[in-house]
Specification:
The complex is a heterodimer of chains A (180) and B (223). In chain A, 67% of the residues lie in helices and 7% in strands. Chain A has 180 residues and is mainly alpha-helical. Chain A has three domains: 3-52, no CATH class; 57-107; 109-178, no CATH class. Chain A has a two-stranded antiparallel ribbon. With 223 residues, chain B is mainly alpha-helical. Chain B has helices at residues 32-48, 52-74, 77-94, 104-129, 133-145, 156-168, 172-183, 188-195, 199-219. Residues 1-20 and 22-30 of chain B have low confidence and may be disordered. Classes of the chains: A mainly alpha (180), B mainly alpha (223).
């Protein structure tokens, strides 16, 4: 390893991001190169100086005062948004629901056969399809954070997908019913 | 994501918990990051559903870190409150677009970083338009900071001030990555996520930023 490459990698070395051949090449080079050893020491020193900057104290009461001010700001922004929405909402909602329905029809993946989604109370057919789509999308995701403290890999098929489905059923009970 | 090869490792290095018999293991989170992510995702979902208190909890959780991030970029106490209001308001407005595959806090750091970089660029443009004031200031700052004091004799507070000045002389992009890595302590994965860049770019940008900062500190005889 030459000095240029070594010095380029010194930061990653300090961050313990190097491994394998690259790590051993760099360590070998440092052993025999005083220039690169000096550079490494400078970087170490710089890192320790930067660490001193970590301590920034938040004055007592500032956080809660900030949250209170932000709450007012969000309320006034929310009021503005809802005024705009009230004019456009009926048209937009209809358009979005039609698009979602088309997407559901074309792309919704096959779900395990022995469970099905029950229509959610209070929703019409198109809205239910949107809910359906949400759950299908969840199955497509690599990770699914549900309402409890667990996270599952859903890039699986068959029996595993069924297991995910069962947990979804437990956590979203109101959306499911047992297979007939 | 569909159809992509998946090696069982998530962004933060945790493994999927699917048992051999295909059942999903309902275990406690394997590490703190997973627990934080699940907690934040719950608060995000509640916020989107219209629960204002859930968003306030998110602000409460990350206020100190975002405040520190902004402070290290802008260095002006009087700008701090406005900047934080803008950042958290942007986050609240953009929350429905948040992809729950990311960590909420890296997403929030991205919003804060973009805001700070933008502010720094605008500030510099204003200064440059005043007949090269910025360049003169930078030179004066370096000359002023270069003292005959041996590095061992700097008081800690003096050194903090000098290092802050030195960071402020960097390009905003480099300033940002130095603050995120060295002060906020983000991992390389978190940097890639926060900055929305590839891992290779994280490494090269960080190396370049460190080289630049080291050069400035050497010019100041600090290291």
């Amino acid at each position: 390893m030459d000095c240029k490459k070594c010095q380029n990698l010194l930061g990653q070395y300090l961050d313990e991001e190097l491994e394998g051949q690259e790590l051993s090449d760099l360590e070998q080079h440092i052993k025999v190169c005083p220039d690169c050893t000096r550079e490494l020491e400078r970087l170490r020193k710089m890192h320790s100086f930067l660490t001193d900057l970590k301590e920034v104290e938040v004055p007592e009461g500032e956080r809660e005062a900030f949250i209170s001010a932000l709450r007012n700001r969000i309320e006034s922004e929310g009021a503005k948004t809802s005024r705009k929405k009230s004019v456009l909402r009926p048209v937009l909602v209809s358009a979005i629901l039609v698009v979602i329905a088309l997407i559901v029809i074309v792309t919704c993946p096959q779900k395990p056969a022995d469970l099905k989604i029950a229509p959610a109370p209070g929703l019409n057919a198109i809205e239910n399809m949107a809910v359906d789509r949400e759950i299908c999308g969840a199955l497509d995701d690599h990770f699914l954070a549900t309402s409890e403290d667990f996270m599952v890999d859903t890039s699986v098929t068959g029996g595993q997908a069924l297991s995910v489905w069962k947990i979804l059923k437990e956590t979203h009970e109101d959306l499911f019913e047992p297979a007939e | 994501m569909k159809g992509q090869n998946y090696d069982g490792r998530g962004l933060s290095g945790y493994v999927a918990r699917v048992n051999k018999d295909n059942s999903i293991a309902r275990k406690e989170p394997a590490d703190e990051i997973v627990a934080v992510r699940a907690r934040d995702n719950r608060l995000v979902l509640r916020t989107i559903a219209g629960d204002g208190e859930a968003f306030e909890d998110l602000v409460r959780l990350y206020y100190d870190r975002i405040r520190a991030l902004v402070f290290h970029h802008l260095h002006r106490e009087d700008d701090l409150d406005d900047a934080l209001q803008e950042i958290f308001l942007k986050a609240w407005q953009a929350l429905p677009n948040f992809q729950k595959r990311s960590n909420f806090y890296t997403w929030l750091f991205r919003i804060a970083s973009n805001y700070c970089i933008d502010r720094l660029r605008k500030r510099r443009l204003e200064l440059v338009s005043l007949d090269g004031t910025e360049a003169r200031d930078a030179l004066e700052a370096r000359a002023h900071l270069k003292t005959d004091t041996p590095e061992e004799e700097y008081s800690r507070s003096e050194r903090v001030r000098i290092v802050q000045k030195a960071i402020g002389m960097l390009d905003p992009i480099y300033q940002n990555i130095i603050i995120l890595r060295e002060i906020e302590g983000l991992t390389y994965d978190e940097l890639a996520d926060s900055l929305d860049i590839e891992m290779g770019t994280v490494k090269s940008r960080l190396a370049r930023a460190r080289t630049e900062l080291k050069k400035i500190l050497q010019d100041m005889d600090v290291i």
